Structure formats: structure tokens, C-alpha cells
Amino acid sequence: MTKTAEPAAPTHRTRRLSADVVLYRSGAALARRLPQPVGAALTRAISRSAYRLLPERRFITERRLQRVCGPHLEGEALARAVLASFESYARYWFDGARLGDLDDAEIEAGFSHQGYHHIQEAIDTGTAPILALPHLGGWEWAGTWMARIPGYPVISVVEPLKPARLFDWMVEERRRIGIDIVALGPDAASVLIKSLRSGQVVCLLADRQVGRGGVEVDFFGERTLLPGGPATLALRTGAAILPTAVYQDGPNHRGVVLPPIPAERQGRLRSDVARVTQDLAQALEQLIRAAPEQWHLMQPNWPSDEDALRRFRRQRRGLHQQPGPVERSPGWGRPDDEDVQAMGKPR
Hints:
By secondary structure, this protein is α/β, with parallel strands linked by helices. The protein is 51% helix and 14% strand.
């Protein structure tokens, strides 16, 4: 009896999914095997290539740095600051890839902290805190330190990525370094509430709204949307919101934890969420101003960014119509919380 052949799988899609996973896994494996000085030099070289090849990301980074530092930052000083941002971001990927292979002594030796007592005081109340962070420095190092040294479990929210097998691998990589992951979606809030009440520290990147929703705030001088999740969780659970940043500090990392944001109910939930989120935005500004070149925000984040980027693209199209070499940008996608296409390692 002849067996009926099953329909063939879409070969191009299967190969694409496999290639994506293999690419990122291979990049992470290479980063782990390279001696640190060699990896650091290669990372700098990659970041400088990205600086040259990605004009839109360079343009947005210039706007972001001038927003934080002021319009007086221009010319060569601005160019150096933008390049430093690209180098900082590349280092984030390299350090993150190596975390799982470092022992506890290496993790502890590479990390210092200020304000950690705010975390401990929150945990002692019986409800773990919410650490609200900007996309700055090397926050995963702090999460690994928290889970492995004082031994407090950590959970974070990640936007699901495609292909699914790449996202699954990313989740396993994070769990390998001690950070549990919940996918952004309708069930995330209930998972996080249970986590806080069970003593699991919740880490949320809070300086960029992804998807629908968000709370309108004043952030570095312009109205924009930031996530309302940290404020909503705090108001519903009584958990402390601790503005936190993790800076690349020479060859090491340094965590800074600010005092908790007041998050008591004063009226309607929507009004309270708006008030707490605005207070959080001001605290994030303080943390970012300490090292603006380490702020890895290379996407439009304010309404004026979108308009400026459209004008920039029109100008580039006009230049490309002129004779001469054409600079091409492959784009630099970064689906938040996770950023898999930026520097060769899924986040």
C-alpha cells in the first residue's frame, strides 16, 4: 500500500526560522568563547560599523542626546557622544552573552551598588518591590547579581518575538542567568501580582511605551507616552516602585536605586496612575542624566521624533538622487524588551 505523501513544509520559512535561531545562538556562543579583551575590541569594531551604516539610528540618537544634554552639544562633541552610545549598546550585548558562563565570584566582583537598602526594606515588608529601569547601561548584570548573590528571584516582562523558537531560546537564556520571563500580554499583570506577593522582584523597563496604551507624561521637555504598568501594579499591590539604573562603570557595572516613588491611592485609579507615572518619569530623567551616552534608546520616543525622522528620510532620498555613492541602511529593529536584530544577540 502506497503511503500518501504529506504536504511539504514551506521550505523558505523553515530555513528562515532555523537561520535566525542559529545566527543568534552562534553569536552568543562566540561571545562566550572569546577572551574578554578580544571580545571587547571586536564589540567596539562592530559598534563603529553600525554607527556608519545606520544613519537613522544615528540621527535619533543625536536628537536624544541633545534632548538630555541641551542643544549646546553639537559638532564633534555630539559625534563622539553618539559613537559612545553605539559602543555602550554593543557592550550591553557582549556582556549579556557572557553572563551565563560567569561564576558567582565573577558576578559579584563585577558589580557595585548604591541604595540597595531600598530593595531590602521593601522585601522586608512582605511584598517585593518593582524596579523601574531605563534602557541604560547593563541592567541584566544587576538582575543576575540579584538572583545569584543575595538570592532574590527576579522576573521581567518581554514582548513576544517572531519566530517563536527564537523567543523561546531567548527566554531560556535569561532563565539561565537567573531572570524569569513573562511574555507581554493579557495574562502578564496577574502573573506579576502573584510574583510580587510571593517575594519575586519585578523588573520593568519603563522609559518607552510599546504597543497600545501608555500614560501621557512630560519627559525631557516634551509630552509623550510611558508605560503605566509600574504605577498600576504598585497601586494595586502596595509594592514599592524603586527607580533604578545600572551603569557601565569602567570594566564593571554599578547599580543605583533611588528612594521609592510615593504610590498611595488618592482618588480614581486612572488619575493616580497618571500622577505616579509622571513622578517616575522625573526620577528616570535624573538617572539618565548621570550617563546619557549609555541610554540605549535609538527609536523615536516622542511625537516630534516621528516628524523629524520623516524629514530626515526625505532629505536622504533627495541626496540619493544626486550622482555619487549612496549610503544604504539595513535598518536596526529593536522589539523592546528585547532587541534581537541590533547587535547579534537576542535580548
